[in-house]
Amino acid sequence: MNDYEQEDPIPQGDLALQITALPRETNGFGDIYGGWLVSQMDLAGTAMANKVAAGRVATVAIDRMAFLVPVAVGAQLSFYTQTLEVGRSSIQMMVEVWSDDPLSNEWRKVTEAVFVFVAIDGSGRTRPVPPRRG
Prior knowledge:
Blueprint: E1 14-20, H1 34-53, E2 57-67, E3 76-86, E4 90-100, E5 107-119
C-alpha cells in the first residue's frame, strides 16, 4: 500500500526544505503551479543528494509523480527526502511534499515523486558516488 493510500499517513524521510506558497506562484484558478512545486522538490532532493554524493549532482529523471491535492496560497510546505537506492554513480531519492493549510488547518500530503540524480565532477562528467561512511 502506498503512503497516500493509508488512512493517516506520515512523512517519510528527513525534512529538507520548508517554504510558504506565495501568490506569485499561482495559476489562473488561484492554486499553486505544479511546475513550481516540482522545482522546489528538485531543490530539496538535490540538497540531500549532494550530501550522499559528497559533491555535485545533476537531476536525470523524475519517476512516479502523483499530485494528490491542490496547494492554496499561504500553505506552509514541507519537503521530506528519503534515499531509496545508491548505485555506482546514481542516487534515487523519494521526495514527499506535505502542506499545512492555513485555511483548513489540515496537515496533508500533496505529492511525491522519485528523483534520480547522477554524481558529476567539475567537468560535468559522471563520477562514482563515494562509499557511505559508517
